[in-house]
Amino acid sequence: MIARIRSTAQHWTRAVPVLAVVLLILVWGRTLPGVLVGLVTLFLAGSVLAAVHHAEVIAHRVGEPFGSLALAVAVTIIEVALIVTLMADGGDKSAALARDTVFAAVMITCNGIVGLCLLVGALRRRVAIFNPEGTGAALATVSTLAGLSLVLPSFTTSGTGAQFSTPQLIFAALASLVLYGLFVTTQTVRHRDYFLAPVTQTGDVLDSDHAEPPSRRTALISLGHLALALVAVVGLAKAVSPAIEAGVAAAGLPSSVVGVVIALLVLLPETIAAVRAARRGRIQTSLNLGLGSAMASIGLTIPAVATASVWLPGPLELGLGPTHMVLLALTVAAGTLTVIPGRATPLQGGVHLTLFAGYIVLALSP
Fold it and tell me: Which key words are in the record (predicted)?
């Protein structure tokens, strides 16, 4: 019976991404009626769940921290493609789309995902234990990237408004790439042990996974289906974005809400994967996913939009407003105090979730 359930799950997670890509081809560039919007949304949700399944298969095969890194980079590359595509279509009205989406990704990952995972892990085991060396390095890199790319543009005088001048934008793009490259090298080569589960005094590994890893063939098949699922997630999200924009406008909400919705859709696979890891007691894996996604979102998006700004028709606004700067500062401060001990109670999870809730409220009602 169990084998039959696993076989059924394997079949639908392979079929849905293929069908979703076919649907994406059929609806691309068309105005969707209400029925098709519902169908696209259904396949979008199915693609998210399929992406999570295949990402977990790959992560189990390659081990940590490579599994978390692979999912974060894959999702972010597709996210960048979505942002650039929407900016190319939107002109001046999408000038702040990259900023809104990247900042939303930072708040979702550093407060939403991290807070939820700490809460789930701490409720399950009383205290969520993780490696402070690796988690602290990730938080420091995210904080630096966010400050350079999203805060400084609001204070420079060479550009117009909350924009970098061309030399400043080049510096921000290069700094993002260099820092992200240094972090990946640290995570996967020189200090990989900092991003693995801590070892107890008895020598036991806290987040150990004793299940037999999948075969190389199964992992490669999952890799292909993961790519299809991620393309489907972002492509279908773009297909329903006009309906999202129309709904936001009809509700009288700020245009920045569109960036929040896009980030929520794109980060769904990582959110589900991180919470599943936390439920299994794999706190370090969930934190690698959350903070790694934030870092990839900034480290890859800023250089991409900086390059694309050469041919994009509209301006590129990156600077945050005062309200968002305060939220970012609170996030960095709370994150630092959470990471230092290497362990967290439900209180720390609640603190981050409260900051995330505050961000959502202020996004809807500035």
Answer: Membrane, Transmembrane, Transmembrane helix
- Residue for token pair 């550093």: 110
Residue 203 amino acid letter = G
Element (H, E) at 224: helix 216-250
Question: Distance between CA 76 and CA 301 in Å, rounded?
Answer: 8
For the chain, the domains span 2-364
**Measured distance CA(10)–CA(50) in Å, rounded:** 9
Sign of the alpha-carbon torsion through 333, 141, 274, 342: negative
Among the listed residues 178, 102, 101, 183, the one whose alpha carbon sits nearest the alpha carbon of residue 140: 183
pLDDT at position 324 is 94
* b/e sequence 78-94, b meaning 16+ C-beta within 10 Å: bbbbbbbebbeebeeeb
Mean pLDDT, rounded, for 141-146: 94
- For the chain, the distance separating the N- and C-terminal CA atoms, rounded to the nearest angstrom, is 52
Burial class from Cβ neighbours inside 10 Å (0-12, 13-18, 19+) for residue 110 reads buried
User: What is the predicted pLDDT for the residue at 92?
Assistant: 62
**Can you name the residues that pair with 199 across neighbouring β-strands?**
205
* The domain defined by 2-364 carries CATH number 3.90.79.10: no
The per-residue pLDDT for 344 is 93
The secondary structure of residue 190, as a DSSP letter, is I
Task: Find the length of the chain.
Answer: 366
Token readout for 207 is 């987040």
C-alpha span between 181 and 351 (Å, rounded)? 31
Average pLDDT, the chain: 82
Map residue 267 onto helix, strand or coil.
Answer: coil
Q: What is the pLDDT of residues 21-61, one digit of tens each?
A: 999 888 887 777 878 888 888 888 888 778 777 877 887 77
Residue with tokens 């942002």: 83
DSSP letters, 277-292, are HHHTT-HHHHHHHHHH
- Cα gap 164→151, rounded to integer Å: 11
